[in-house]
Design goal:
The protein is α/β, with parallel strands linked by helices and 530 residues long. It has 2 domains: 14-196 and 508-529, no CATH class; 233-493, 4-Layer Sandwich (Nitrilase/N-carbamoyl-D-aminoacid amidohydrolase), CATH 3.60.110. 46% of the residues lie in helices and 15% in strands. It is built from 15 helices and 12 strands. The chain has helices at 14-30, 40-55, 61-83, 86-93, 98-126, 131-151, 174-195, 204-231, 259-273, 297-307, 363-366, 404-408, 435-450, 497-505, 508-529; strands at 233-245, 278-281, 315-324, 328-336, 344-347, 386-388, 391-397, 420-425, 454-458, 464-466, 472-475, 482-492. α1 (14-30) crosses α3, α2 crosses α7 and α6 (131-151) packs across α7 (174-195). The longest helix is centred in the N-terminal third of the chain and has 29 residues, at 98-126. The protein starts with 13 loop residues before the first helix and ends with a helix. Keywords: Acyltransferase, Cell membrane, Lipoprotein, Membrane, Transferase, Transmembrane, Transmembrane helix.
């Protein structure tokens, strides 16, 4: 049975302060300021504090409204603490007045927080009597809120709770159920922790449950290690790498008198001199459309990759916009390698609202921002990879690696599945902020889900090499101009369960599972009250 609402539950302003503080702790768990490390235990503890506040409320309609407000405050604080750096892009680089930029960040967080408000209100409205039933209901509702944030209104799942667990024990679930499945398990653990009482230590049933969970977790961890070892194998020989990080100041990057000539000169020099097998330049490394370049520039920096040089065979992945101002343009990565009839081209599919496309009815807002090339055309899902040296290189751009189900769409044909993932980004829009470390954790989680290495070439960081187990093997210091020289070993073989089902069905199985579980637990709770 659930414990009754506590007579000593926080009163007055205390619940609201605790909810906001727990939300900020949840934000810190994703990438701790200062170290950038994700803290899985802090994510569970902060969510458990919210759950404890919810359990202290009366069941039914009387407590549902208050639960919804507590959940909304928690989520708004969490999301503001997670993506506060949007203020930098809108104010420092977009020219939006500081009060309006702050209001925009708060408004976005408050809107997205409404999903969690509904989840918390429904949880307390139903209030099933059994402790396990309550935990399952809370986890199912939290999963649905995370899915809604990740998919509705173009989706913005940055800071999902599962990313805090990339180094934690729940990471073993990534290859099977992905980041949202990890978030479900974390919510389950959080509600269980919130329900814990000292007298449980005297309960044989409680200890039996703890032992069963520990044994199951140990077996799952062993199975995961064996699956990673047996499911895939090395693809070809390791590739030598040169990952370029130009560190072009964002406020100058698109300025014809400063950032543009600096980018063309520095990247041009590096591309002509690089001796690695694979060279990767970040998103919009070349900040001009093809028609805006000096005639012959692009040919001069890509010729060696197209034609080869003696025994040296190299490939280049180069971020630059393609198209024209008149006919439309895309945020693209071009690929150059010997023997091509035409350069390889990947066009970004999942565009950033306001920064890369204008949502309906919001042109008035984008006109207040000073953002160049702000209305891109969209590429398709599941675009082919670049074949080179026995590898299949699959680019994605900027925050596209936030959408694992879209990356998984490239794995529907195992024979053509990528062996190496490549992220080209420009996080310079967000200054020297925690966004760099948060994005690195996102890429690491994708590597765990898909069991493929991930290369990251960025303007300001984090330029890094991540292996198929999600470990950072090489990294360049952020906010420095330089080249990360390293190696990557591609991986091939059977795809992970997550890649198999999400590549074909998207997130529909999680939606259906979450809805079914929530309805079942609500029904069980209603029966228990009759």
């Amino acid at each position: 049975m659930l414990p009754p609402p506590s007579l000593h539950a926080p009163r007055g302003a205390a619940p609201w302060l605790l909810a906001a503080g727990a939300g900020l702790a949840q934000a810190a768990s994703l990438a701790l300021p200062g170290s950038g490390r994700p803290l899985w235990w802090l994510q569970i503890a902060s969510l458990a504090l919210l759950a404890r506040l919810l359990l202290a409320l009366p069941a039914g309609r009387a407590g549902a409204w208050r639960a919804g407000l507590l959940g909304w405050l928690f989520a708004t604080a969490w999301l503001c603490g997670t993506f506060w750096w949007l203020f930098i892009s809108m104010h420092t680089y977009g020219g939006l007045a500081a009060p309006l930029a702050a209001l925009a960040v708060l408004g976005l967080a408050a809107f997205l927080g409404s999903y969690y408000a509904v989840a918390c209100a429904c949880f307390r409205a139903v209030a099933p009597m059994g402790r396990w039933h309550a935990a399952m209901l809370f986890a199912a509702l939290w999963l649905l809120a995370e899915l809604a944030r990740g998919q509705w209104w173009t989706g913005f799942p940055w800071g999902a709770g599962g990313y805090a667990h990339v180094d934690g024990p729940l990471a073993v679930l990534a290859r099977s159920v992905g980041v949202y499945g990890i978030g479900f398990a974390a919510a389950l653990a959080a509600l269980g922790l919130a329900q814990w009482r000292v007298r449980d230590l005297r309960s044989l049933r409680w200890w039996a449950g703890v032992v069963a969970i520990a044994v199951a977790w140990g077996l799952l961890a062993v199975q995961r290690q064996a699956a990673v070892k047996d499911a895939g194998h090395d693809a070809g020989a390791p590739l030598s790498l040169a990952l370029l990080q130009g560190n072009i100041p964002q406020d100058e990057k698109f300025q014809p008198g400063s950032g543009v000539p600096l980018a063309l000169a520095w990247y041009g020099e590096q591309l002509r001199a690089a001796d690695a097998q694979l060279v990767v330049a970040p998103e919009t490394a070349i900040p001009l459309l093809p028609s805006q370049l000096t005639p012959g520039y692009l040919d001069s920096v890509t010729r060696r990759y197209r034609e080869g040089s003696g025994d040296s065979v190299q490939a280049l992945l180069l971020g630059m916009p393609m198209g024209s101002l008149e006919a439309g343009y895309t945020n693209s990565v071009l690929g150059f390698a010997p023997g091509q009839a035409q350069p390889y081209r990947y066009d970004k599919h999942h565009l950033v609202p306001f920064g890369e496309f204008i949502p309906p009815l919001f042109r008035w807002f984008t006109e207040m921002l000073n953002i160049p090339l702000g209305d891109f055309a969209r590429g398709g899902v599941g675009q082919p990879s670049l074949a080179f040296a026995g590898q299949r290189l699959a680019p994605n751009i900027c925050y596209e690696d936030l959408f694992g189900e879209e990356l998984a769409a490239r794995f529907t044909d195992p024979a053509q599945a990528p062996t190496v993932l490549v992220n080209a980004s420009n996080i310079g829009w967000f200054g020297d902020s925690i966004a760099i470390d948060q994005h690195l954790a996102i890429s690491r989680l994708r590597a765990l889900e898909l069991e493929r290495p991930m290369l990251r070439a960025t303007n300001t960081g984090a330029t890094a090499v991540i292996d198929h187990r999600g470990r950072v093997t090489d990294r360049l210091a952020p906010h420095t101009r330089g080249v990360l020289r390293a190696e990557v070993q591609g991986r091939s073989g059977p795809v992970t369960p997550y890649a198999w089902w999400s590549g074909r069905l998207g997130l529909a199985p999680l939606w259906l599972g979450g809805l079914a579980l929530a309805l079942l637990m609500a029904w069980r709770g209603r029966r228990a009250r009759l």
